[in-house]
């Protein structure tokens, strides 16, 4: 009988096989560099960090076999670093993210620690899996190219009367200045039609940006478990009762 060769579960061959299969899974996006990611939560931010902008982030990293090698979550506080201070996979991904984004990244060894790895926790040739979220961008930012959706009635309800009033007040103020002959406004918008187009665009932009942030914040809150759900005791059934009783007896047994 031939000798079976065991493949290192965290080695280059396993990594290549994992990425080849993973790219076809639902929600996984593969970039030209080979980096793969899946959006777990879409943040309300509308700006990306530049390559040198320090960012406050939470993350957890694991190998293909599931063993975790680092976690800011377990340390209890986020870590700050810029995209150009970390592995290539993070450098690329972070510049595509906004505040509040939470991604799962699948990073080929070439964009991680390469064939040498980072002993003792990360072996050579390892493909890495990270969950990362950007909490805050502390440096320069680049505006995200926004494509706003068609808002539903429920989403439009998040645009309040006071928001509309503020927008109309801004509009009226600019109109009055233009009518009074404001040189800067008149130079930029010589005709009333051009001014109205500018005012329409300004109000629409303000509304879309506000709704973008509010809808994503609302979705995140809705997805979070409520305090009552989180603290609710386990339901006692004929299947769970024996295990709970055993646990109770173990807890209170004499030393």
From TrEMBL:
GO molecular function, one term: peptidyl-prolyl cis-trans isomerase activity
PROSITE patterns, sorted: FKBP_PPIASE (PS50059)
Pfam families: FKBP_C, FKBP_N
Protein name in the entry: peptidylprolyl isomerase
Cell membrane is among the record's keywords: no
Domain of life of the source: Eukaryota
Family: Belongs to the FKBP-type PPIase family.
Gene3D superfamilies from the UniProt entry: 3.10.50.40
Catalytic reactions on record: [protein]-peptidylproline (omega=180) = [protein]-peptidylproline (omega=0)
Domain PPIase FKBP-type: 52-138
EC number: 5.2.1.8
Enzyme class: isomerase
């Amino acid at each position: 009988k031939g000798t079976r060769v065991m493949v290192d579960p965290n080695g280059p061959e396993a990594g290549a096989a994992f990425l080849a299969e993973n790219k076809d899974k639902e929600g996984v996006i593969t970039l030209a560099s080979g980096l793969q990611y899946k959006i777990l939560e879409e943040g309300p931010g509308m700006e990306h960090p530049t390559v040198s902008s320090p960012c406050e982030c939470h993350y957890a990293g694991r190998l293909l076999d599931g063993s975790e090698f680092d976690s800011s979550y377990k340390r209890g506080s986020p870590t700050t670093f810029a995209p150009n201070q970390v592995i290539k996979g993070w450098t690329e991904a972070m510049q595509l993210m906004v505040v509040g984004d939470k991604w799962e990244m699948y990073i080929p060894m070439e964009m991680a620690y390469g064939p040498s790895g980072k002993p003792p926790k990360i072996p050579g040739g390892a493909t890495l899996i990270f969950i990362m979220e950007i909490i805050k961008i502390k440096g320069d930012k680049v505006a995200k190219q926004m494509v706003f959706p068609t808002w539903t009635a429920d989403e439009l309800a998040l645009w309040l009367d006071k928001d509309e009033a503020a927008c109309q007040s801004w509009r009226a103020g600019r109109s009055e200045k233009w009518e009074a002959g404001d040189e800067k406004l008149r130079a930029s918008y010589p005709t009333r039609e051009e001014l109205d187009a500018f005012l329409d665009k300004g109000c629409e932009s303000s509304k879309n940006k506000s709704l973008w942030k509010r809808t994503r914040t609302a979705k995140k809150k809705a997805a979070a478990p409520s305090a009552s759900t989180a603290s609710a005791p386990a339901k006692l059934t004929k299947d769970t009762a024996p295990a709970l009783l055993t646990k109770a007896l173990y807890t209170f047994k004499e030393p």
